Amino acid sequence: MADLSTVFTGIRFANPFLLASAPPTESESNIMRACEAGWGGVVTKTIGLHPVVNVRGPKTKFLRTDDGGTRVSMAKRPDASLLASWNWELISDTPLDAWIPRLAAIKKAWPGRVLVASIMAGSGNDKELANWQLLVQGVQDAGCDAVELNFSCPHMDRVDMGANVGKDPVLCSITTQAVKEVARVPVWVKLTPATANIVEEAEATFLGGADAISSSNTFPALPLVDPDTLEFEVNVDGYVSAGGLGGPAILPQSLAKMAEMTRAFPDREFSGIGGISGWGQAFSYFMLGCGTVQVATAAMLDHAIGPNVIRDLTAGMTAFLERNADHGWTSLADFRGLRRGNVVSQSAIGRPDPATYHGGRDEEAEGYAVDPA
Ligand SMILES: Cc1cc2nc3c(=O)[nH]c(=O)nc-3n(C[C@H](O)[C@H](O)[C@H](O)COP(=O)(O)O)c2cc1C
């Protein structure tokens, strides 16, 4: 019998599929709908203490491709395929005091769904570290099952916030440690993928006491310049700043970041994020060793909270387990991490037999011409 339930950082989940911190989890009503739709858990839109004012105009746009891939644009048009989301949205503009009763109400209505509060403060001084502690105490007293520290928001000007924390191993360690001093619930940390060697930040975060790492947040990205208007496709008074790319385009990159970490820390817990819209993509994260996965872009485009996405994920996992019942597989624990060890360095990959090797130019391969010589 297929069993979708799992235990991650000591918490029992009805299934390993969560809504990531993003617009689908920005409000009590969205989260209630998500619980009803069957998500195993949700990570709230990031909650902070600093006032938040977003830019004028759209905060998120969707990049689509058509005409055989020759046209990539945010313009809405039929028959184009989704390539990515692009956003420059800040964290929740609902203050902590307003979130607390809402978190309590969600937990009361849906005790069997896992409620994770994403939180963020600065990290540059003791007052800011005390802010992290205030946030943790507030959300755990409201009944949240875990916290996820946002060390990954890509559009922060402050040097001690968001992705700028995730790029600094010392800040990663100190901030996690400050949170762990007061946390009674598991502490997940969401790292930025925009670093040279994410294993260094992961190591520092685990040294600080993190119970799990979530990855990836969006990758730094700019909109295209429209050849007709000569303006960026998203701009305010002609100006733009780097935002974050999510959705299908980041899936292989996020998998690569995740593989680096799961290989370095095979006994640690990881939540995979980036480009998941159905079982096929979630499966790759599980095979690399992730214990849960999270979804943002695909859920935004499916009735704002992803009722069809969660249906596909749970149906896909059930069908997969049933197909593999003869291996004795009944749950995620039976196949999690099976391909983690297959990601190796280039020099460890097999080479052709020298006797039959002709420079690799005698076979037809997509994107290469056969060498007539
Ligand atoms: C509009 C938008 C807002 C987001 N806001 C947050 C946020 O407040 N906190 C956070 O940790 N991640 C935030 N994210 C990142 C997502 O949680 C997720 O890591 C990223 O989008 C990659 O997943 P996806 O490919 O499923 O979209 C946001 C993403 C989008 C598209």
What does this structure look like?
This protein is 30% helix and 18% strand. By secondary structure, it is of the alpha/beta class. The chain has a single domain, classed as TIM Barrel (Alpha-Beta Barrel), CATH 3.20.20.70. The strands form three sheets. The protein has an eight-stranded parallel beta barrel with strand order 3-4-9-10-11-12-15-16, surrounded by eight helices. β9, α3 (126-141) and β10 form a beta-alpha-beta unit. The radius of gyration is 21 Å and the shape is globular. Residues 20-23, 45-46, 60, 85, 87, 89, 91, 118, 150, 152-153, 190, 217-218, 246-247, 250, 273-276, 295-298 line the site of flavin mononucleotide.
Could you give the topology of this structure?
Elements: E1 6-8, E2 11-13, E3 17-19, H1 28-37, E4 41-43, E5 47-48, E6 60-66, E7 71-73, E8 81-87, H2 96-109, E9 114-120, H3 126-141, E10 146-151, H4 163-166, H5 169-182, E11 187-191, H6 198-207, E12 212-215, E13 219-221, E14 243-246, H7 251-264, E15 269-273, H8 279-287, E16 292-295, H9 297-300, H10 307-323
Parallel strand pairs: 3-4, 3-16, 4-9, 5-9, 9-10, 10-11, 11-12, 12-15, 15-16
Antiparallel strand pairs: 1-2, 6-7, 6-8, 8-14, 13-14
Helix pairs in contact: 2-3, 3-5, 5-6, 8-10
The structure holds flavin mononucleotide.
Task: Give short descriptive properties of this protein.
TIM Barrel, eight-stranded parallel barrel, alpha/beta, 373 residues
Provide the CATH architecture: Alpha-Beta Barrel
Task: Give the strand line-up of the largest sheet.
Answer: 3-4-9-10-11-12-15-16
Order of helices and strands: EEEHEEEEEHEHEHHEHEEEHEHEHH
The total of beta strands comes to 16
Main pleated sheet: 8 strands, parallel, barrel
Say which molecules are bound, naming each kind only once. flavin mononucleotide
Span between termini: 58 Å
What's the overall geometry? globular
The Cα radius of gyration reads 21 Å
Q: State the name of the first-level CATH class.
A: Alpha Beta
Note poorly predicted spans.
none
Helix % is 25-40%
The tally of structural domains comes to 1
Report the structural category. alpha/beta
Number of helices: 10
Beta-strand content estimate: 15-25%
Mean pLDDT: 95
